[in-house]
Queue: 3 jobs
Job 1
Amino acid sequence: MARITAGVATSHVPAIGAAIDQGKTDSDYWAPVFAGYDFAKDWLRRQKPDVVILVYNDHASAFSLRLVPTFAIGCGTEFAPADEGWGPRPVPPVKGHPDLAWHMTQSVIQDDFDLTVVSEMAVDHGLTVPLSLMFGQPDAWPCRVIPLAVNVVVYPPPSGRRCFMLGRAIRRAVESFDEDLNVQIWGTGGMSHQLQGPRAGLINEEFDRAFLDRLVSDPDGLSRMPHIDYVREAGSEGIELVMWLVMRGALDDEVRELRRFYHVPASNTAVGHLILENP
């Protein structure tokens, strides 16, 4: 059967993608950020996942106020990089895994989670920046990717608890798939940041580090944190962290922490990164 062997959490700051695309990764400002992912690149070369379920949020590229699904799964064969206003990123198209994606869709919907099925959509920095951070700049991404978009832009976003339980349902779906696949699940976004208003530029290192601790050791309790706490402590865009709970819900209760990285600042946010393996 297919199995989820590991989970990855990482920020998906758009300026990181720009730094990669413009050859600035070795600059004084950006070098410490990218050095934090050297372990991940080596680890992935050894792990060789067949499929990555990549949990991210769209930034008005595939969806708009005309249509905002709470949870959407990409069931297509290929997803092109989105033009976010300055041209698509110079990265390879994402190759999907329709068989597993459709199986997940059926299983998760029958498990009482309503997913919007998407066959065609452009994927923006929320998905492509994590791929670049983890895989570098290959001619083609070395594994299939199933995009799983979560609405954390338009009120109301799903609760952390709902996201955590979706992760549980995704795991059941993957483990009931007949093909022998090494599957990873990545949760992206965050950490603390706010892009507008009087608190623009907010970064709460104490909250971020506590969130990383609890994501590893107390995910069930963390999943019960209300939305207002994310807003108060992590800023208006800190709600992206609920997507990390989808990843964590798909793993064992007890996990091995292989890598932790935290850096301030990268553009106007804090960068966080975890690699967790099932024992």
Job 2
Amino acid sequence: MAAITAGVGSSHVPAIGAAQDNGKLGDAYWKPIFAGYDWSRHWIDNAKPDVVILVYNDHASAFSQDVIPTFAIGCAESFAPADEGWGPRPVPVVEGHPELAWHITQSLILAEFDMTIMNRMDVDHGLTVPLSLMFGAPDAWPAKVIPLAVNVIQYPPPTANRCYKLGEAIAAAVASYPGDLNVQVWGTGGMSHQLTGTRAGLINTPFDTMFLDKLTADPAALRSLSHADYVREAGSEGMELVMWLIMRGALGRDAGELHRFYHVPASNTAVGHIVLVPEP
């Protein structure tokens, strides 16, 4: 049967993708950030996931103010890198896993989650930057990817608790899939940052550290936080952290931490990264 074997949390700062694409990995500013993922690149080379369910938010690439789904799942054969205003990133096309995606979609809708089904969708830096951080710059991504886009842009986004419950439902869906697949779930976005307004540039390291601590040991404390809690402590764009709770919910009650990395700054935000595995 298919099984979720690990969860990954990661920031998806667009400037990180630009740094990699323009050969700046060794620059003094960017080198510590990419070094923070060295362990994870070695680990995932051995873990060899067949499929990554990658939770991210679209940045006005596939969606606009005309259509704003709360949860959208990609069921297509492939997903092209989006043109975000300066041309698509020079990274491989993302290959999907339609069979598992449709199975998960059916299971989630029957579990009363209203998923938007995407049979065509370009994917932006929210999805491709984590792939680059974890896999480097291959000619083809070494795992199939199921994109799961979450609205954390237009109020109201889903609650932290709802996201955690979605993760639990994804775990049940994967466990009922008849094929033998090694599946990982990645939650991306964050950590604390705000791009506009009087608090632009906000970075709250104590909150970020608390979030990483409780993600492993006490996720119930994170799923009980309100929208206002996340925005007050982590900034308007820090609301993206609820997407990490989809990943955490998919791992079950107990999870072990294999690796953690935190760095300030990358562009105008904090970079956070964690690797977790489910425990019996």
Job 3
Amino acid sequence: MKIAVCEDISEEAEWLCEVIYRWSVENEKAVEITSYADAASFSFALEDILFDVLFLDIRMPGEDGVTLAKRLRKQAYDLSIVFVTGEREYIMEGYEVEAVNYLLKPLEEEKVFQCLNRICEKSRKQEPFIILKTEDITVKLLQREIYLVEVFGHRLVYVTEKGSFEVVSTMKQARQELREEWFVTCHRGVLVNLLYVDFVGKNSLLLSDDRRDFRREVPVSRRMYGEVNQAFIRFYR
């Protein structure tokens, strides 16, 4: 989860970043937190980074938070906006831009935690998932929980955060069910989730998830290297 804090008072921005980090540790969430002092610097970063959450101060030098939020919605940016301010008069503005929450200064850690929990709950309900039916169980998996899919004969093995699941299926069917922009074939019979790719080499790539202590080197075929590398670059841009 990529989180931006747009706040012109450095002490308050630093405190909020620390609170978000503590929340991520307590909830085992992988987050990247970046702080911006004004709307201009945030807008510049937005050209290269797709943020999931924006904690946005309303009173800032230059473009104010409300104007920035309206511009983001007009440009169809689908990120969760949380207004942060010391003034109640802007509450109705939050409804107009579909803000997730409106936090009044001085901020309370508990309120920030509640806000982030709400965002995660909303995200979980909207996240793509698949249903796998093994010989023993039927399991619902969020697609972000899948590290890779491998072919073994007439079966597929899904290696995930929750363990490995073997099902009778084909790679063609798996690709149809999984998000095309997340998953790429790197070798014959191997489909990897770009969410967990650390680097792509000409002969192999590395999958890792520090939260689950998962690391695995996966072969990359010479024929597929170019496609995998381009998919990796597109994904993180």
